[in-house]
Design goal:
Rossmann fold, 2 domains, 7-stranded parallel β-sheet, elongated
Length: 343
């Protein structure tokens, strides 16, 4: 097993070492990593197309987190390599962050904090009234939350908002089980436009893939309720950044609360930094020390299941499972010259 970067907690490394030899790739030079790639069955923390081409014996590639943006899933699938993730290990932290972002906007917490720090004086509450910005703070209670994507994060966010703030929750998720939705006491809508038009807050918690990239563009933003707020907890690429800036600048949207960006990181001087009605955090929704052991444990467990020949629970490309051996044989057809790695 080759790990390109350290795991977030030593627990994961200990689990791996209990069953397989581990190569700490971050301690190797480029040439040594190339040699190691040709001999290992597992790769953790990376997975570019060049890694896959060099990994003649690879069976599994793992992400240490929920996202797999840094892994070429299409190339791995074509080669019959399983891709696994640690999805579900930090859902509560991200959902909490979503609540925090909504509160920071609604109660003008972020704006007031920036203002008082920059002016170094007490700014009275008289600055927070009227219809112009920043205007009256608002409450979450009684508002409608639209959740796009009803996985671990979406479900937890919906529950927190429904129970703690008595918010109505609409859900758009083509794969959502109606019985599960009823149990969660949320309303599933089959039309995304309906959710956009009825929600005071719209939160994204979907993975970034070919179907979700750019799913919120100018047309979708225009269909959002005037004065509503967009919250992005997924990946920046799910939202058209230029279209979002236009919707914010025109006043159609009251604001946005973003933990992810496209591009990421945002370049210095980006217009989003200039908009007062935007709450920004640098992709730290799940970046909490409390979740690191779970992330490492889940990633290690999934890699080990794959190497034992067991179907991983967090298999990102499930279509590869029934045909993985045939695909690997085809990918490995012909003599492969490798140099044994000596660590």
């Amino acid at each position: 097993m080759l790990l390109t970067t350290p795991m977030l907690d030593p627990l994961g490394l200990d689990m791996l070492r209990g069953e397989v030899d581990v190569v700490e790739g971050w301690r190797l030079g480029p040439d040594e990593q190339t040699v190691a790639l040709a001999t290992v069955q597992g790769l953790g923390g990376g997975g570019s197309s060049s890694d896959i081409a060099l990994g003649a014996r690879l069976e599994v590639i793992a992400s240490y987190g929920s996202g797999c943006d840094h892994i070429d899933i299409a190339a791995a699938t074509q080669a019959g390599i399983m891709v696994v993730s640690a999805a579900g290990s930090q859902y509560s932290a991200v959902a909490e962050h979503g609540v925090g972002l909504m509160l920071a906007f609604a109660k003008r917490i972020a704006y007031a904090d920036r203002l008082m720090h920059s002016e170094r004086r007490f700014v009275g509450r008289g600055a927070f009234n009227g219809t112009g910005w920043p205007g009256w703070p608002t409450q979450l209670r009684g508002k409608t939350l639209g959740v796009i994507g009803f996985g671990f994060i979406g479900r937890d966010l919906a529950e927190k908002c429904r129970v703690a703030f008595d918010m109505d929750v609409l859900v758009y998720s083509p794969s959502c089980d109606p019985e599960e939705a009823a149990r969660q006491r949320v309303t599933v809508v089959e039309d995304l436009d309906e959710l956009l038009g009825r929600s005071d807050y719209v939160s994204l918690s979907v993975p970034l893939n070919g179907e979700t990239r750019g799913m919120i563009g100018s047309a979708q933003l225009a269909r959002m309720k005037r004065g509503s707020v967009l919250v992005n907890l997924s990946r920046g690429g799910t939202v058209d950044t230029e279209a979002l800036v236009e919707a914010l600048s025109s006043g159609h949207l009251a604001g946005a609360a973003l933990d992810v960006f496209d591009p990421e990181p945002l370049p210095d001087g980006h217009v989003l930094f200039e908009l007062d009605n935007v709450v920004l955090t640098p992709h730290i929704g799940g970046w909490v020390a409390d979740s690191f052991p779970a992330l490492a444990r889940t990633a290690a467990r999934e890699m080990l299941r794959a190497l034992r020949g067991q179907r991983p629970w967090r298999l990102v490309n499930p279509e590869v499972w029934p045909n993985r051996r045939a695909l690997r044989s085809a990918a490995q057809a012909g003599p492969v010259e490798t140099t044994p790695y000596v660590g």
